[in-house]
Amino acid sequence: xxxxxxxxxxxxxxxxxxxxxxxxxxxxxxxxxxxxxxxxxxxxxxxxxxxxxxxxxxxxxxxxxxxxxxxxxxxxxxxxxxxxxxxxxxxxxxxxxxxxxxxxxxxxxxxxxxxxxxxxxxxxxxxxxxxxxxxxxxxxxxxxxxxxxxxxxxxxxxxxxxxxxxxxxxxxxxxxxxxxxxxxxxxxxxxxxxxxxxxxxxxxxxxxxxxxxxxxxxxxxxxxxxxxxxxxxxxxxxxxxxxxxxxxxxxxxxxxxxxxxxxxxxxxxxxxxxxxxxxxxxxxxxxxxxxxxxxxxxxxxxxxxxxxxxxxxxxxxxxxxxxxxxxxxxxxxxxxxxxxxxxxxxxxxxxxxxxxxxxxxxxxxxxxxxxxxxxxxxxxxxx
Length: 383
Ligand code: 13P
Ligand code: SF4
Hints:
This protein is an alpha/beta fold. It has helices at 8-11, 15-29, 43-46, 55-64, 77-86, 110-123, 140-148, 159-169, 181-190, 235-244, 258-263, 270-278, 292-303, 327-342, 357-380, and strands at residues 33-38, 51-53, 70-74, 92-94, 130-135, 152-154, 174-178, 198-201, 220-223, 249-252, 266-267, 285-289, 308-311. Helix 5 (77-86) links the parallel strand 3 (70-74) and strand 4 (92-94). The chain is globular and about 65 Å long. The two termini are 36 Å apart. Iron/sulfur cluster is lined by residues 76, 102-104, 137, 227-229, 255, 291, 319, 321-322. Iron/sulfur cluster (SF4) binds next to loops.
């Protein structure tokens, strides 16, 4: 996405000046402003977040915001789109840097998904209804596609509950899972679906590269997409960590590949990783397979409790797009919001994320189904 260049004064602004200005603007704008921060954001941004969370929690919080007129989303593009879909027309969602995208979300284009669906519909029929489920790390158009076809969204926190809900409604249903093959495979396998009952759809191969006669035996069709950050973690890194420290515990995000998830002691979303490590025994030692900003923050927090935390990888596994949101960008959008409030006719809002109305309606269906299923699952089994 095109981002207009940051005005010169922000490019050269030092951190202390930006921090002072952000504080002033937050106070000035007051309760009509809410800042949301994903766990992978830099510390300098997290300090200003009114709410922090994983992608599930942040979408729940966005949906609950009834007062705030300006929602500044410090995360990536698909998260800001979800917030726009879940909030009312008078609320404005702002992404401080429009180039903060997600490489995984970009791996499934709506035209490719339509083509895949068209093909699969001819292969699968009758009681074996095909249900599309998309990880929220996807475009609004793909969420709308799922919404229109009795499908829904999921996050890394609730993927299992969503699969359970699909199969409870129709035990013979087949799931088309977009766009992260690893989250889909790791979740289905942990629910007892053998690997032979999963197929991998490659959008660049005719027929997805799946033998045409094999669909009757498949329960999950996985889209060939992945996270470029989480694919950096390897089984060798786990072996090395255990060889150096036999008692070490390994926890990884479900976007890691199957072999890494199988080799780890624990697998969970960013929220689960935080909760598990916060509950760790003093004296214990952890290696974590997820984004480096979160790992470093946890390491700092847990050092006081004598819990050792470090990255599973020797190299910094950084979500470079999340990292694009920094103090100058946050300062700039807050300045613009404050000036827009004072003079709406002269100062337009910058970096507003607006999902087209026709897409929004169906995408909201997919997100709302996810939120409803999650609420029902949490009522039975508190997270
Ligand atoms: P969470 O669902 O754990 O927030 O993860 C989102 C994400 O993009 C991780 O790469
Ligand atoms: Fe996307 Fe991976 Fe970054 Fe998450 S960590 S936002 S999946 S690129």
